[in-house]
Amino acid sequence: MKIKVKLVRGFAGKTEKQKQALKSLGLKKINDERILDKTPAVCGNLEIVKHLVKVEEIQ
């Protein structure tokens, strides 16, 4: 299964852990979108930054 992740809020004032999670997801700027496989590593990073991103499942 694939998921589409979109960054909807910026990096300013975020912790280093949150910045690293966004970097590992491949999100660099507001409105960046990535299509990723739904793996435990991706889901763990999404849990850290769930308030900064919008997630949609793709079938």
From TrEMBL:
InterPro entries: Ribo_uL30_ferredoxin-like_sf (IPR036919), Ribosomal_uL30_bac-type (IPR005996), Ribosomal_uL30_ferredoxin-like (IPR016082). It holds the Pfam family Ribosomal_L30. GO terms for biological process: translation. The keyword Flavoprotein does not apply. One of its GO terms (molecular function) is structural constituent of ribosome. GO terms for cellular component: cytosolic large ribosomal subunit. CDD domains: Ribosomal_L30 (cd01658). Keywords: Ribonucleoprotein, Ribosomal protein. Residues 3-53 form the Large ribosomal subunit protein uL30-like ferredoxin-like fold domain. Belongs to the universal ribosomal protein uL30 family. Part of the 50S ribosomal subunit. This is Large ribosomal subunit protein uL30. It comes from Sulfurihydrogenibium azorense.
